[in-house]
Amino acid sequence: MSTAPVSEPTRAKRLPREKRRLQLLECALQVFVAKGFHAASMDDIAEAAAVSKPVLYQHFPGKHELFLDLLDTHLGQLQHELTTVLAEEETNKGRVSGTITAFYEFIARKDEAYRLIFSSGMDNDDDVTERLERFHDDMAGAIAEVIADDTGQPMAEATMLGHGLLGMATAAARHWSMLSERPDLETSAQLTARLAWRGISGFPKESESW
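The line above is the sequence of TetR/AcrR family transcriptional regulator; the predicted structure tokens follow.
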């Protein structure tokens, strides 16, 4: 009487190093979003990626470094989207609308990568703080250049306006994400953009008193 051959245990598919690294980052993002930084473990990430911990450590020396890699990746993506808007839009009104819409779209992404920035429990981490401050300074500076060029405002004052626009976009989009009943993304972004534009467009091209 013949017997059916016994199948061998399924092995994890070998991936080229860079593809494996990207897969690990994707799985780590899911774990950090679900648990936050402190509750997440390298065991959780290895399990989510279906790899052994030694494989995970071949790519990342520790959980902190893995988190910072993710943060750099997603801040870089957001910065690219914002700078593209500033470069491609032909009017300041379009730049304001596009900048704010980019924040809403980032927060609305299905991967919820925005939680790395706003709700990971890493607010007091020096490395995270340094990255976020650099991101905001770079973007506020880019916006300030546009404002100063258009209005003649000194760069120091234009930079304050740039930070104000970023703060408004971030706060409004975060609030929108937490609403149980909320307007659609486009409507919400345009409401915020309208408020911001009415403020920024009030600055004249030449200095004058209020």
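Note on the example: The mean pLDDT is 87. Residues 63-88 form the longest helix (26 residues).
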